[in-house]
Queue: 3 jobs
Job 1
Amino acid sequence: MTTKSQSTVGTVVYLADRTVSPPVIIAVPALKGFSNIGGGKAKKVDKSNFDSKGVNESQPGRSDPGEGSGEIVYIKALPGHQKLKKLYEAGCSGLIDHVDIYVGDGDGTAPPTLVGVGKVLTPPKVGSPGATWARSGTIGTGYISTFAPKKADDDIDRADFAIQWTGTALTQVKGEAIANQY
């Protein structure tokens, strides 16, 4: 039996840039990898007491949404790389407190859109009525916590970047019906 898998080719990180008016969506090109896409870890709350029978007792507490990290082949002339750096700097200086993020999987090519008066970042969908997701992906909010260009001997320019998720990230699966999340 062959295990089904999905290629990471075509995965794109999109960010909503609200430092300009009207807001725009930027794609982060030349992505080498990205991990912790909306994952997290629940705090372990110790509820052991004198009545515990020889073992510690615990329960899950609040979830820490974690930090996603990635690497790009850094090309300073690319607008997506310039914007990623500017969003990092805007967050550090207090000009913005969060960025809307969509990580689109390689099973589609449609980008997210900004919808409505509030310009809500919305994953790509098809069909109306009875809309379904046009691409698998993860959407959430966070801030750019790291942007670190690096040079190595006999290599190409690269940069590490990280996104601190600030809430629950929602995952969509291509072809699933939209359940009024957006």
Job 2
Amino acid sequence: MTIPEIPPPFAEQQRSFTEMMINDSVSMLTRVLSAIKKWEKVAWAEFEEWKNEFESKDEELVQRMADYGHEPIADEGITTIYTEYALYGSMAVNIAATVEKQLARVFSGHTILRDGNNQREATKPHFADFMYTLEQVAGCNRQDVKHYGDHMFVRELANRFKHSGGDATQEFVERYGTIAGVERDSEQIPYSKYDWECYIQRAKELLVDVADRVSRSNHSGEDD
């Protein structure tokens, strides 16, 4: 009978610590999202209350303000909409940044290679560098990592929020238009419409999958 080899205790402890850090980071994202949703509910309730109060004022005064191009209700509504837009757009940035931060922990002790160049170290590694390093270390394809495609979508949402003011580019429309719900270049991306709970959960599962692949490759190296 062949007795299976047991990984060194330190390796198991390291893996448990990594998964704990992943869980903590994802928990933080969930709390941020919860806070955004609470703000959203309160903000729109306050807007409706203020709107009803304003409309109950002297109708002649309200009309004179409109005649001069001043529409307080529309202005207040737009302010709330853009605040909501910024909060949900920042959610994409937070998820992408959290994943990169946790990947740095997962690859602790490894040299992170620059994407596409196994001879050059990435001094400020990005997601693609970690994925390339994973391919070299674990002998897998990044496309096989759990929820890789979903996270690439979230990363592109983050990039559009940071670099084009939350508007779609033609390249974004061609690649993600259907799932993003946009059809034209320069169309505003509807950040508040996405299932952020789902993308947070999938980011966690991606990190756990990468951590497992790296851990298995480390054990394999020890066996050799």
Job 3
Amino acid sequence: MRYLIITAIAIIGFRIALTGSPVSVESRTVQTNDQKLQLTLPAGWETTTLPFRRGADKLQAQCTGKNTYLNIVSEPKSDFRFQSLQEYADAIIKIEAGTSQLQNRSLTGPDKIVIKGKDALRYQAVGTRQSVIVLCIKTFIETPHRWNQILILTTPSHLDDLQDDVRRIVESFEECAG
């Protein structure tokens, strides 16, 4: 069983390595393919395509040195009837509670934070998947035309090393004009 898990992780890592962009030694601003959103990836991060990509996923990245992955989910406000960021976040959290593949999943938050003068909500989910403890930092941000989620997946041992990266990524996130 352990051999299968190690093999699966190696295959996923190899696939990510083939589809990713070069690791940057400096921070750089990246945009989604549709050029509607952008953020700044800190040094050591690279854009990639993760194997679990869905239609609402707009941008994915990784920092292999910190065993961490980033996924941006963004949905047009015009597709929903939510009246507030809290209402949107509550709906997503409820859906995820019923569909999560994490065992012993626990959720903390929301912590109310401010990004570029706008309110945002941060949650932290922790659970176990195939004997690995997985931590997800979920930041919900409302932009003029979209409901957005910044998801950062890692393991607890990397959390302290990530705090500055998380702050810089979230603070740089914005909807592009046009």
